[in-house]
């Protein structure tokens, strides 16, 4: 399905922690459940999850970002050890590696605790130098922006360099300003992220109008709008193509956007058309939302799902 290509992932690196337990009673100290933790699982999050998705799809992956030098980084290195990902972070001793800790009781997501030092690192020049080094052997670059501060200050420089080298850049965006993504090949906001930038559309026609305007204002080749259970909408050249979702039941949307951008990257770098790449990404997103937490969709998973359509 996909050729083995070299993909560079740059972005906000995170560690996801899932603490699973049993709830049998309410605390006498406050009206909250007491969770008896039975097991703890660590998974790559943010840009790290994108990298793992791409690795599962058979790509050669390099992962760059800014982390602390702490137990969370060591745990993330351990989690990524079973993959073929080249993990080359910039270590900033003044910040913590971003950790998202989720408490699961009786298979219900009860709470999330975030440990992060957003916008506190000043080591962007060091990160950019690593990007240039790794980009030279890359077929495509994925920017995974979770608005934690690692990527926005250098996004425009990365895009300009990639355009000079004729390397496509596709972006999973976040935040209230997309100007730094100008000139990239594709930007993929979800519905909420889209509305943060352009406002809430009145109807579908208004959504299409605002989508076209955003694509033109950022000088993009394409804009891909993901709409959850309503599928996806692709703005490319002068056309707008809608893709109906292949999965109506949603268990957990965590990491679905990472799955979409990963399959897009693998497919586009394998010289498949943009439309075909979006079709495959749409199927993959349907698979990912059937599971709790982040999951990696493999080539065999994708092939099996396509056969059932």
Describe the structure.
This protein is of the alpha/beta class and 309 residues long. It is built from nine helices and 15 strands. It has helices spanning 47-56, 71-80, 124-135, 152-164, 191-198, 204-217, 256-269, 274-288, 299-308; strands at 6-11, 13-26, 33-46, 60-64, 66-67, 86-87, 90-91, 98-105, 108-115, 140-144, 168-172, 186-187, 222-226, 232-236, 239-243. The strands form three sheets. A nine-stranded mixed β-sheet has the order 6-4-1-10-11-12-13-14-15, with helices on both faces. β10, α4 and β11 form a beta-alpha-beta unit.
What's this, in brief?
The protein has nine helices and 15 strands. It has 309 residues and is of the alpha/beta class. The strands form three sheets. It has a nine-stranded mixed beta sheet with strand order 6-4-1-10-11-12-13-14-15, sandwiched between helices. A four-stranded mixed beta sheet has the order 3-2-8-9.
Q: Which descriptors apply to this entry?
A:
9-stranded mixed β-sheet, 4-stranded mixed β-sheet, 15 strands, 309 residues, UDP-N-acetylmuramoyl-L-alanine:D-glutamate ligase, 9 helices, alpha/beta
CATH topology: UDP-N-acetylmuramoyl-L-alanine:D-glutamate ligase
Strand order of the largest sheet: 6-4-1-10-11-12-13-14-15
As for the number of domains, it is 1
Give the H and E element order. Answer: EEEHEEHEEEEHEHEEHHEEEHHH
- Poorly predicted runs are none
CATH superfamily: Ribokinase
The helix count comes to 9
CATH first level: Alpha Beta
How far is the first residue's CA from the last residue's CA? 16 Å
Rg is: 19 Å
Helix content: 25-40%
Structural class: alpha/beta
Q: What number is the mean pLDDT?
A: 91
What gross morphology would you assign?
A: globular
Largest sheet, strands/sense/barrel = 9 strands, mixed
CATH architecture: 3-Layer(aba) Sandwich
Counting DSSP E segments of at least 2 residues, the number of strands comes to 15
The proportion of residues in beta strands is 25-35%
């Amino acid at each position: 399905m996909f050729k083995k290509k070299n993909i560079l992932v740059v972005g906000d690196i995170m560690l996801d922690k899932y603490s699973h337990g049993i709830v049998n009673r309410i605390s006498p100290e406050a009206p909250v459940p007491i969770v008896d933790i039975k097991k703890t699982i660590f998974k790559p999050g943010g840009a790290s999850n994108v990298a793992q998705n791409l690795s599962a799809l058979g790509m050669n992956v390099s992962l760059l970002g800014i982390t602390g030098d702490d137990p969370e980084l060591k745990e993330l290195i351990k989690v990524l050890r079973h993959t073929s990902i080249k993990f080359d972070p910039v270590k900033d001793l003044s910040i913590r590696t971003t950790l998202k800790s989720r408490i699961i009781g009786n298979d219900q997501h009860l709470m999330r605790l975030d440990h992060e030092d957003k916008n506190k690192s000043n080591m962007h020049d060091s990160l950019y130098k690593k990007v240039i080094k790794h980009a030279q052997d890359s077929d495509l670059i994925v920017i995974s922006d979770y608005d934690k501060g690692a990527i926005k200050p250098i996004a425009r420089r990365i895009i300009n360099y990639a355009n000079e080298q004729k390397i496509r850049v596709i972006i999973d965006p976040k935040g209230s300003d997309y100007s730094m993504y100008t000139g990239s090949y594709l930007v993929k906001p979800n519905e909420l992220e889209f509305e943060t930038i352009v406002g809430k559309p009145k109807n579908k026609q208004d959504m299409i109008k605002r989508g076209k305007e955003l694509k033109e204002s950022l000088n993009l080749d394409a804009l891909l709008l993901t709409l959850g259970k309503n599928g996806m909408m692709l703005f490319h050249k002068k056309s707008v193509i809608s893709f109906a979702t292949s999965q109506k039941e949603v268990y957990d949307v965590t990491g679905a956007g990472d799955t979409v951008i990963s399959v897009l990257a693998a497919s586009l770098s394998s010289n498949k058309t943009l439309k075909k790449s979006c079709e495959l990404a749409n199927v993959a997103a349907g698979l990912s939302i059937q599971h709790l937490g982040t999951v990696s969709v493999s080539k065999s998973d994708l092939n099996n799902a396509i056969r059932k359509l």
